[in-house]
Design a protein that fits this description.
- The chain is mainly β.
- Helix content is 8%, strand content 40%.
- It contains two helices and 15 strands.
- The strands form five sheets. The chain has a six-stranded antiparallel beta sheet with strand order 3-4-5-13-8-11, with no helix packed on it.
- The longest helix has 10 residues.
- It is globular.
- Bound molecules: fructose -6-phosphate (F6R) and zinc ion (ZN).
Length: 194
Amino acid sequence: MEELMEPVRTLIDFKKGVVNPDRIIERRASDMQGMYSDDLALEKLLSQDNPLIYQVREINIPKKSGHIIYSTTIIYPGKVGKEYFMTKGHFHTREDTAEIYFCLEGEGYLLMQTKQGKVSTIHMRPGVLGYIPPYWGHRTINTGKKEFIFLALFPGDAGHNYEVVEKHGFAQIMIEENGKPILKDNPKYTPVSG
Ligand code: F6R
Ligand code: ZN
């Protein structure tokens, strides 16, 4: 029999995310090279202050089937050119695993895509739960003026596969036009074959 794990209590501040996380992952402009449609705009940001784009606050839960891992993500407000600050986005290594995103603060979009290029979005604001079914890659985008914060819950053995997104991109991007977020085809997207 597996060793019995003790229950875990986690405090979540709706305006700051997980309080006292075991690990904080920070992604700055320099970690997002190639992810935005406007490479020049990203370079400009890099040469200025290389801003923090998002932060993930995680609790150590075993990365094993049967467990549920949870974390909060804070995406800061801002844009690279016309494109809003966003997460890298990924598919799960175990593609048949789902995920739940629950919005705590701010607003934005959950952008999802299958490997066949089908796209779907959910507008997130506090209280909205987005269910990401198995096989959908996912990225979140802060289209608001303050921090966009959400809680993510996913199977322990889901894993992260960033390669597909790094290589092919998402089929659509979210940019600001006339002060509003709109979805546009991503000029850098290349379809995943097979
Ligand atoms: C876990 C998950 C989230 C993201 C986080 C950062 O499966 O979807 O916790 O990992 O929002 O986004 P990425 O991982 O795309 O940099
Ligand atoms: Zn995920």
